[in-house]
Write a structure and sequence with these properties.
This protein has a single domain, classed as PH-domain like (Roll), CATH 2.30.29.30. It is built from three helices and seven strands, in the order ααβββββββα.
Length: 144
């Protein structure tokens, strides 16, 4: 009897955690639906980003700290969460030609930029100035 209750309790905890994880990825999945993973072209460089934030116009945001791997190629940037954060967070591809950038004051200790894409209105991806410079130098495309 006690084992059954333990299994049921564990199942509820795992189910609740999965629901929270799925809910946390809602904005990420909107980007993934509009910009699914594809070939970035010739891969120039891959690195782990320190912080990526997906923010809605209403101010609600999700922060991904040290869990996103960016692969940059001539065609654009691919963002992929590392496991286990990749559950409910499919890889996304940001085509360099569609990226629009606006400086924002999000970070207190670094220059930050809001990356917007036309197929995902109302959402943007916040990155540091260092990350934006890296993307631009590798893709040979300076976002507007």
């Amino acid at each position: 009897m006690q084992t059954m209750l333990t299994v049921q309790g564990l199942g509820m905890v795992v189910g609740l955690m999965a629901l929270m994880w799925w809910r946390h990825g809602a904005r990420w999945r909107r980007f993934a639906a509009a910009y699914p993973a594809r070939d970035v072209g010739v891969v120039t460089e891959t690195r782990r980003m320190q912080t990526v934030i997906i923010r809605s116009q209403s101010g609600i945001f999700n922060s991904y700290k040290g869990t996103i791997t960016a692969t940059v190629g001539a065609q654009g940037v691919s963002l992929r969460p590392m496991a286990p954060w990749s559950v409910f967070h499919p890889e996304i591809f940001l085509p360099a030609a569609e990226v629009r950038v606006e400086q924002t004051g999000w970070y207190l200790n670094a220059t930050s930029y809001a990356v917007t894409l036309p197929r995902v209105p109302g959402l943007d991806i916040l990155v540091t100035g260092d990350d934006l410079d890296w993307f631009s130098s590798v893709t040979q495309h300076r976002p507007v």
